[in-house]
Write a structure and sequence with these properties.
Helix content: 25-40%
Low-confidence stretches: 14-18
Strand order of the largest sheet: 1-2-4-3-5-8-6-7
Strand content: 15-25%
CATH class: Alpha Beta
Number of helices: 9
CATH topology: Aminopeptidase
Bound molecules: zinc ion
Number of strands: 8
Order of helices and strands: HHHEEEHEHEEHEHEHH
Radius of gyration: 19 Å
Number of domains: 1
Length: 307
Amino acid sequence: MKKYLLLLLSFGFWAQAQVKPIISKEAVIRIETELASDQMEGRKIFSEGIERASAFIEKEFKTIGLSYYGDLKNYRQEFLETGRPANNVIGVLKGKSKPEEYVVFSAHFDHLGMTKSGEDKVYNGANDDASGVTAVIALAKYFKELDKNERTIIFVAFTGEEEGGYGSSFFSENINPNQVMALFNIEMIGTESKWKKNSAYITGFEKSDFGTILQKNLKDTNFKFYPDPYPQEHLFYRSDNARLAALGVPAHTISTSKMDSEPNYHKPSDEVSTLDLDNMTEIIKAIALSSQSIINGTDTPSRVTKM
Ligand SMILES: [Zn+2]
């Protein structure tokens, strides 16, 4: 009997060890490579290529086992933009004790499409922003397996960022901003930051204590998140976080992009081969760790009161 119990206990331990959630480099490479492939034709809004990208993200959300958002019947948040159909892709993990409080992870899945001239015609947008969407999918898998989120987590791939934030506009107009405790927007994390490996920056750092909370959660690790070192670029206002920040949400962008010296930015040469996928995997792990106290409801960042 005793022996049997011990066996059972050790099997239980083994089983638990097997399901410990991880963010694997293999998964990061698989998702990143798919999103940035030539087949996606640069993921321009209203194109067939972005439709393929949407289908891929929807399939990933389904495999992970995310729920639908609000009263949607699938992962697509569809809307008309200048008379043409467009969609965000949204998946949800319902919170255990605070389901009415939301934490959002977002990135944009659209990019610049194709160019007519030159040898390389596809704007692959491997860094901009397939890297961010890869992070959102990897985080969804991680938090689903962790199965401990007290707050509801919403995972969003926005469309139309490159055209002026269509997707994030529609999303922000259709959510109660008071229920959104924080938004982690992830933009271009595929290259090393100006501080090299294991580091990233947070835009609009001084506008809430979001960044300070993230730094606290990374205190005992080898990761460092810094305030945005490119204030002259106004990055806080230039990505999808801005729409929700304007409504008071502590909504910030996490990035590693060296805005003064990123050679492939908005060029067809923004390819997977130019990314540091080891570092990118570590950055995604750091985002997961840094969000912990917000996900479990012990920290709530202050609201953005001044844009
Ligand atoms: Zn971008």
